[in-house]
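step: validate -> pass
step: tokenize input -> pass
step: predict -> running
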Amino acid sequence: MNTLSYKTISANASTVNKEWIVLDVKNLPLGRVSTAIANFLRGKYKTNYTPHVDCGDNVIVINASTVTLSGNKWEQKEYIRHTGYPGGQRSLNALQLHNKKDTRLVENAVRGMLPKNKLGAELFRNLRVFGGADHKQDAQNPKMININDYL
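step: predict -> pass
step: emit ->
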């Protein structure tokens, strides 16, 4: 028996195979979509997944302006930020944030599901979110993936 076949494969920056994928999130729930996007960015579906390496794909999200929230989350869900000055806490609900910039809901949800370190910041840079059905990454020849298979 060949004992070399039992060695654990650990990915590094030179052995990672990064692809470009397109996910259409039209009329899908925000939380379920965000977990699938985070898993693609992290590379957790790959056989050579390594937690401390960026082995995920570059993800293009289209139709992000049509994601849905259940219940009263459009009015009750708050996004809080701070300006850095005393008394500078600001908050918006989900509807106000969506009206201000329609892709920000998906970006905030995915960012919250990534690691809170340098790797998470690097993974977040692999995400492109577009409110409409068209995107600017045609030159990368992305492949379309049905996100419903991963929900």
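step: describe -> The helical segments are 30-42, 73-76, 94-100, 104-112, 118-124.
step: cleanup -> pass
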